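User: Teach me something about this protein's shape.
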Amino acid sequence: MKNLNLDNIFPAKQWDYIHKLNEILPKVYGDSPKACVITFGCQQNVSDSEKLKGMLFACGYTITEQMEEADFIIFNTCAVRGHAEDRVYGNIGKVKALKKERPGLIVSICGCMAQQQSVAEKIKKSYPYMDICMGTQMFHRLPEFIYKRLNGGKRIFELTLDNKPIIEDIPIKRDRQETGWLPIMYGCNNFCTYCIVPYVRGRERSREPEKIIAEAKGMIANGCKEITLLGQNVNSYGKGEAHGVNFARLLKQLNDLEGDFIIKFMTSHPKDCSIELLDTIAQCKKVSRHLHLPFQSGSSRILKLMNRYYDREQYLNLIKEAKKRIPDVELTSDVIVGFPGETYDDFKETLSLIKEVKFSSLFTFIYSPRGGTPAAEMPDPVSREEKGKWFDELLRVQEEISNKN
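Assistant: First, the predicted structure itself:
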């Protein structure tokens, strides 16, 4: 019999706090206390928010979309781009008036933005009405934090990033039943020079395949028709794990489950997109023929500065293999315009790659510096105005391709 790893099970201690909150919340707020979860950022954040809602629902809260009627508010934040952080601070500012009206209101911030020490210090000094600040690996302690704050405890700032095993069996309240997010791993080991994720999400940690399969079965039984597997780099799933199941093998196991559903996944890193994976996609009837494969730049020089572990030629060869092995594949990608040190000649290489591959669609971004990343310290002489002109040119090229597809 396989030994149970009790370190990654939703702690009994947290269930104790949940039971206590079920008793005291009605005494504090009345028969129907309400909680509001406000989510910024990527699909992983949306998935995390479903766990936050699951725990809050288990504690006795009714979930509401309206901050104005909530007794508990939590902002689940993103740190990938500056615009997302600005929106968070704007929303936090609105809470001050609500807190004055209802002193019993508890307000929390969590997620990638909250994981940054500089942000936590700003929250502590400039937003004294914020009650709880917790990092990306502390979600499972939410019932404990609420209970302690309700009982007169000090403001809570918990940013521990210990990279311990993933906590499983956290209650989930899904936003929809017919489509669903299924995280298979957390964190990232790639350290692209522009990206803050490894610093706020920690190193790669893969879930046990049995846990993933069990969750997928539950989703299918509840009517899910579209399961999207999530990971910062799903192609790295299982690396270094004793179970020996890589991403291609996991896809096969999920594909073999009974039921009428399709499997999607994001995001794939080109350096780990193997021929085995391409063949698996081609062979598995339930796996979508959509491959989102971010290339970020068409210039090998810029890719090296980005620390992407592949060059232009390798990426194009991978695309050729994908098209050969999956003739009906739909290709999409991410592109960063105006990376520090990028010249117009580098940018033209990005345009030529786009014209050669003919992506169905692109997610395009003007480079946004993130404090704490190597790229933020690189010389960046090209003006924002000039980058904007490049960006517009790229959009015109992609629009022409999309119209012809």
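Now, about its shape. The mean pLDDT is 94. Residues 354 and 388 are 18 Å apart (CA to CA). If you'd like, I can walk through any region in more detail.
User: That's plenty for now, thanks!
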